[in-house]
Amino acid sequence: MKVFVIDEQKCNGCHNCQIACKDEHCGNDWSPISLPQPLTGQFWVKVDEKTVGQTPKVRVDYHVTRCNHCENAPCMAAGENGAVYRREDGLVIIDPVAAKGQKAIVDACPYGVVFWNEELEVAQKCTGCAHLLDAGEKPHCVDVCTTGALRFGEYEEFAEELEGENVEVMKPELGTKPHVYYLNRPKLFYAGDVYDPDLDECLENAKVTLVRESDGAVFEQVTDIYGDFWFDGQVAGSHELRIECKGYEAVVKKFDADECLNLGSFPMSKA
C-alpha cells in the first residue's frame, strides 16, 4: 500500500511541491488517469503557512494539504458507476470519463481537497502522479522536495517511524483512515526573556521552570546570552512559570493558553 509521509519539521515553505504539481498537470492530459488541471482555482498539493506567537517571539509553521487517498474514501462512496476507484497500489483515482457531471464527489470530501472543474464538468484531485508511477518514476512533488520533507513509498518502508509518537493523520475522528501521514506537526510554544532593569542587562543562566497543571509535567531550561527562554512542543491549558536567578527574587506567573505565546519580558529584582 502506497503512502505519503510529510515531515513538517523539515518543510521550509519553498512551495516546490505546489509548483511541481501545477507544472505536471496544468495543460497536460494524462487520460485515463486525469484531465488537465486548471491554471487557477485548484491546488492538488498546497503549502499553507501560518505565523504564530507575538513579536519578537514568532515562528512560521508550514502545512501541506493534499488528497489523503483514504482507505475508507467518502468520494468513492459518493461516485456512481465506479467513477472513483482504488488502484492496487492504494491510490484513489477519479475516472475523468465516468465521473463527468458528478459534483457530489466534490461535496463528499471532508478535507476539501477535491475540486470541481467547471469547464470540463468533472471532479479533480491529486492522483499521486499515477501516470509517473506507471512509468517507474516518483510523484513530481516528491521528486522536487529538496529537504526530504515529502516522501512516498510502500507503508512497510516507513512502518517503524510511523509507529512513533509524533505521527498524525488529518481528522482521525472521521474514520476515513488516510494514507497521508504527518510527522512532527508543530506544537505550541511559550517564550519570553529575563533582565535586570537596574543594570539594563539581559540575565543569562536564569533557571526557568514550566509546570503544566493538567498532568503536573515539569519542563526546565536556562536563559541564553540574550536572556531568552523558549518552551516548544507544548499543549494548551493552564501553566505556572517560575524564574529563579542567583541574587534575585524569584518570579512566578500563572497563565492559560490555547495558542503560541510570547509571555513578555520579566524584570528581576535584587534579593
TrEMBL record:
Domain 4Fe-4S ferredoxin-type: from-to ranges: 2-31
Keyword field: 4Fe-4S, Iron, Iron-sulfur, Metal-binding
Gene3D superfamilies: 3.30.70.20, Immunoglobulins (2.60.40.10)
Annotated Pfam families: CarboxypepD_reg, Fer4_11
Keyword Iron: yes
SUPFAM superfamilies on file: 4Fe-4S ferredoxins, Cna protein B-type domain
Domain of life assignment: Bacteria
Keyword S-adenosyl-L-methionine: no
Listed name of the protein: Oxidoreductase
